[in-house]
């Protein structure tokens, strides 16, 4: 296909917009033509790299060499690709009947932001930006290995989003990499707006509760994951990235565990698992003990619980669900509220509702304590997605306990573990006890 | 041997503490239970050794695999069917025992069907998942429950109420001739190794089974078996001990954690033992379903592209066990399990003959290659 045809075709594609700028420059037997989309181009750069040299160069030959030497220079691929590149912020340059692309993208989102989801004290305080190239730059400059490999794809039929798969070729879990690539190619969606969506798109199951990929933002965690053989998926316009395959314990770890002294981090880990169990089991234990087997607790405690429930018109099951429902509403509301109003919401929800509900004897005092303990311990789970999943499992356990009692709770918990172990994350078992000292056993596996 | 091997050997030993094994042993306390236990420990360790040694020669192969390779169809089809029934009953006995326990001690008002269904439904998921995942589940649940169960054993043996004179008295009956019922029921504790028939699929790396393993197994079994038998005697004495229905439950109810949130150890014991019983049923029924998979291809049965064939064996298991939960009472269950243990004590040593045959055929097959 010759130059003119390509230009005509591209013109045709953009016939519905007035954003496309086409210009021809002629000066002292030199002439070039270029086209670009106005809103995507850095005007200053255009002036500096193309227009000014054009008028200063002695002849066409020199200008052509100069353009070819530019770092942003790119040969012209197929015309569909050219179209895509123009929409990505390149300008199409015609020099002496030859076409080339020069990337002069103006990006206003390439500043590295500070961590907003994964807050840490000791860990990395910066997070990814919204710009893919900046993010890759961040990863490359922290992970100095020639084996670091980056593959690009563009997904989403309508918005053609750039997606990068980052991994260390030597360390990567090849089976998982293969699966992820296959599944990425199969993604058939119109619009892809954030990397987090892949958690669902790459999952073959229609209903899934537990995340199969971990969402993360600080670069220290990303390079830790890459070095651990994980595949990281980044997407342009998304300040979060996904790492896979994951195991359950990844969701209970923070990067800070490695930054503290051993005893402190062991203590913190213990605290976290304790919080995990409390947030999962405490409401159900309350239901099971008060409604089914009050004799399980020591007599004094059983009497205190019964005394506190005096005057409460509901069964413990309704009481727990009632209070948890309001807690979940409060959580959900406080996420979306503007900062100015959110303080009011917590005051109204937490303080006023808490005291009023016990005074109106709609719930017992102990119930209020349990609900707040549960809320606090849910926040202890470091990765948000896992905390969300646990909230749902907790509700299921409450329902099971109210039907089958304490034995039902125990069995429900066992089924929960059974379910977790039966899950897969890209070929890796989701939950199993690894012997980290025996790396050989890990890599070979038993099956 | 991989650590996973010990899990299913250990689960079978520990799970039967709450089942009828201790009460059968205690019923014959003056008729040779002690000597039967000593005999069972020796023969049990022997059978574990023979089984483990046999299976490490064929890494990654299950017994049905080997049978299909080496024996005729008229032989292996009935044998696998018999094994399915055996494993199913082994799981069912634990299930029924625990259902009875729950209705006696924790939820007396609940309908018995509901209790048994709650256990069955939770186990069924485990029958369908992959073999390695069953072992991972077993490991995690063991890690959670075992410290507490060991604590209870420790607490029981150091409790002020335990009278060591009773135990000394009971040991004196060692001079009695071993009694068949006591022997077979204590021998049953060692038969967890039989799960290797299917779980050997998981051990596809060549394993070692030497003196170190044999000795550790030997000591673990001695410890569990003798705690099972002597601690209830230490608490309750020897007179009328034979009338205890659930010796270990009554023993744990004699314990008190003075400063804990839960004062009566019984409830902790019951709920944590529920985990162990769950694992025991899970392992047994998983193995039973896997046996059936060798005989029938369940994947073929489909309704609207949804594979329901695989649900058939758990459904049958559910129906049969809910029937037996209602039909049996405790004394029938005890007699039933006692007979079952006797049959197994014959069945498992006989399997060694099959092993010899398989080994010879495999050797022959290798040589002709």
From TrEMBL, chain A:
GO CC annotations, alphabetized: membrane
Alphabetic keyword roster: Membrane, Transmembrane, Transmembrane helix
BP GO annotations: spore germination
Residues that span the membrane, as ranges: 273-293, 313-331, 340-357, 363-383, 395-420
Domain of life of the organism encoding this protein: Bacteria
Family: Belongs to the GerABKA family.
Name of this protein: Spore germination protein
TrEMBL record, chain B:
Keywords linked to the UniProt accession: Germination, Membrane, Transmembrane, Transmembrane helix, Transport
One BP annotation, GO: spore germination
Nucleotide-binding keyword on record: no
Pfam families named in the record: Spore_permease
Protein's cellular compartments: Membrane
InterPro entries documented for this protein: Spore_GerAB
Transmembrane segments: 5-26, 32-54, 75-106, 112-129, 134-154, 185-203, 215-235, 265-285, 306-326, 338-358
An annotated GO cellular component: membrane
Bilayer disposition of the protein: Multi-pass membrane protein
Assigned protein family: Belongs to the amino acid-polyamine-organocation (APC) superfamily. Spore germination protein (SGP) (TC 2.A.3.9) family.
Record's protein name: MFS transporter permease
